[in-house]
Amino acid sequence: MQQPSDGIIHGHPTDEVVLIDIVSSLSSPSFLQRKPSKAPLTVPLVIPEPQSGEPFDPALAERHTKRREWIKSNLARLQNEFSQHLPLRLSEQLQNTLINDPGVQSADDVYNGEPDLLAFQENLGAAWVSYHDTDIQVDLVPASLQAISLVDIYGSIHYNPLSDWMTLKVTIDKEYEYMIPPKSSFLLGPFTSTLPVFKSAFGKSTNTPGFDFILLDPPWNNRSAKRATHRDSYKTSTFNVYDLFKLNVTGSLCDGGIVGIWMTNSTKWRTFLLEKLLPAWKVELVAEWTWVKTTVHGEPIFDLEHPARKPYETLILARPISTTRPSGLSSSSNNNRQNLQDKVIFATPDIHSRKPCLKGIIKPYLPNSDPRCCEIFARNLTEGWFSWGNEVLRSNWRGFWT
Asked: Hey, CA dihedral for 207, 156, 198, 370, is it positive or negative?
């Protein structure tokens, strides 16, 4: 079955329930096909319960009780109304392959020959401070004709001004090719050290138009991250979540813009976000989107009632406090935008921590018909978006396509 370019298999972007294929939601050139990056789950996982039988997080258990029936009723809709789309992404070569734990990297997460962008950046920080180019934005068109060094890409904003995909050659330990989407731009580097670059380009003091949508997927610290041995643990171990206070969200948003932030189920970090970070950013909660992780047959990836873990994650959506109510939306174009509401997204997990690309389902809610969007802590580039993170090019390595 041919998947749509926005990854929406069933439903409309403004529906309460949407079924998405994560891989086909990612920006990809029409002349290439993405390889299956991980064998999808065909049966639910069996997750050991705490020895005490009690939940680690009583507040999570209480929140779950309030949303349980909503999730269950929408799972029933998935099985009944969306059944013609099941199973999802199940090719013959993957039918007998099972994943034991979606939270731990498997061999399927890494392709032979894929460069480890995190490892190569470890020693770049000090050198970059002394030798980096002071240009804020660099046009990739001249650079695409020859291989450029990772040092030259690190810490500066690069963009593809063309309406076509571009192949960028980057020299790390050897030469690698990356596919750059049309009208996209990126900043490669850790959040804290490259934050000044972001502020210089998109801060309140600049003349740059604000973003319609700013999306963040911070590496929230948790038990599994502490135990992790996969290479993504580096990203978590080197990030201080309190540095998020340094990000002036409202100064980088346009009138009526939206900020979205992916949340784990940790009550500690949820409280931090809702009671400290969002008020500091001068934004407030307007909706929650719940990504329910399913097998290819539409079942939760593990028991919905597991006392310690839940088979879903939440996207918190907020607007600047002065524009959260309809009366605050002064632009005429804002009046044509859909009101944000709670939503369920069903999708089968792909590689570790990869989220469904939201480009297709967020657009109807944004204040401008040709929106400017930004993803922070990104691990892939999105057509027309600005993306920033220390793995921002990872999923655009040429080796991920046939």
From this structure: positive
